[in-house]
Amino acid sequence: MITEERKLKTYRWYVWGALVIAYIIVFFHRLSIAVVREELVEAFDITSTTFANLGSAYFYPYMVMQIPSGILADSLGARKTVTLGTLVAAIGSILFGYAPTIAVAFLGRFLVGIGVSVVFIAILKVQSQWFFEREFATMSGLTAFMGNLGGIFAQTPLAVLVAYFTWRTTFIGIGVISLGIALLCYMVVRNSPADMGLPTIESLEGKKREIIKTPPLGEGLVKALLNKRTWPPFLAFVGFFGAFMTLTGTWGPSYLMEVYGFSRQEAPNYTTVAMLGLSLGCIIIGKISDAMKSRKMPMLGFGGIYVTTWGMLVFVGGGKPPVGMLYPLFFAMGVGCSTFVLGWACGKEVNHPSIAGISTSIVNIGGFLGAAVLPPILGRVFDRYADVLEATALFQKAFMYCFIFAAAGFLFIFFIKETHCKNIYEENKQK
């Protein structure tokens, strides 16, 4: 038994590691389009709104696929789901790189969004099978940290690759690498320890394995949607993630080049720092939450930092903070944005354990709804006022929407039910 336990505790990191490599690709595609804005505008002769919609073409299918992703993870299992999803993303990336027209570029971006949409929910499913419940927030934070490395790669390193190889070759190359990652996941990932004849997590904790009857999909979905406690973390995620993706994934490098005069290679350094802050924040907030046995208090603390940084970006210096402030400001913004990591746990812990996948998926939809809707709003501001306002005033006007989204997300944290890091569905039902 000791040998089997050791094998489980070792092999689970191989399973998690293979899935996280796929998740790095998820974040790369999520943020990559901001760095190649000038190249895309030149290649396809598109407006700011069309460019923003091209970025959103990733988020809309990602958002819609969150519930189906949970179904696939439960039915096909994480192994096959991530393998197939990564294959679709690889095809989309290659198609995007080859795209002769903007319509084909949209199709490639759409396929990437569909393909990568299944990865995160599958990782959560695997975590529930291979890791202890007390490790959930910490592992979610660690997963987000590793995924964000892909976001960091989509900043300065991507700018260097594009300058050296061109944007088309770079995206085709990422597609080819994704094919190898899909094969790796199929070879390494196992859905649960039972697939290898290993003991369950419950048995290692000395618990009797609960047989939880999973309700039909429609019934489970309705239960989660009708639970009023599902919505505050959803809405907080809309505001926080929407604003952050708008900056780092769509308009940030353009802001830094047009307002501060940075070069195409220099501007992504600042969004890289924001991604680094988010990566570290995801680990820190997960550990703090697990150690404090609290979800809400860390969210209020980190969320307050996040809203403050957006206020500084929009209001200090008339929308142009001193250059010396930018690195610490962007880093603090990333750290503060990590608040959303605890939203997944909040959504899971206020719903019945039998619908943990569905409830987590619903909360996850919120972030991608914000990331899909907000960038085109800014795009319309740029198209409408570009000939009227100078760059600083133009971006200040546009980023005001990001500040509003972030502030609204922070307010919804106050409505989140404190779970003390455990499932409280039955407790609340009895009250």
From TrEMBL:
GO biological process, one term: phosphate ion transmembrane transport
InterPro entries xref list: MFS, MFS_dom, MFS_trans_sf, OPA_Antiporter, Sugar_P_transporter
Name of the protein this chain belongs to: MFS transporter
Ranges annotated as spanning the membrane: 12-31, 81-99, 105-124, 145-165, 171-189, 231-250, 270-288, 300-319, 325-346, 358-378, 398-416
Major facilitator superfamily (MFS) profile domain: residues covered: 15-421
Domain of life: Bacteria
GO CC term, one of those recorded: plasma membrane
Entry coiled-coil feature ranges: none
Keyword field: Membrane, Transmembrane, Transmembrane helix, Transport
PROSITE patterns xrefs: MFS
This protein's record includes keyword Membrane: yes
A Pfam family per the record: MFS_1
